[in-house]
Amino acid sequence: MDEALGTAARAPLHHPEVFAALKPGSELLIDDGKLRLTVESCGADFAETRVVVGGEISNHKGVNVPNVMLPISPLTEKDRRDLEFAVEMGADWIALSFVQRPSDVQEARRLIGAYVGSRVRILSKLEKPSAIEHLAAIIEWSDAVMVARGDLGVECPPETVPILQKRIIKACRRAGKPVVVATQMLDSMVHSPSPTRAEASDVATAVYDGSDAVMLSAETASGEYPLEAVTMMDRIIQQVEHDNNYQLITDASRLDPEHTTRDAISAAARQVAHTLGAAAIVTYTSSGSTTLRAARERPEQPILSVTADIEVARQMALVWGAHSIMAKDVRSFTEMVTKAVHFAQSEGFARVGDRVVITAGVPFGHSGTTNILRVAEVEDHGHHHKHESD
Question: Domain named Pyruvate kinase C-terminal: which ranges (predicted)?
Answer without folding.
Answer: 263-375
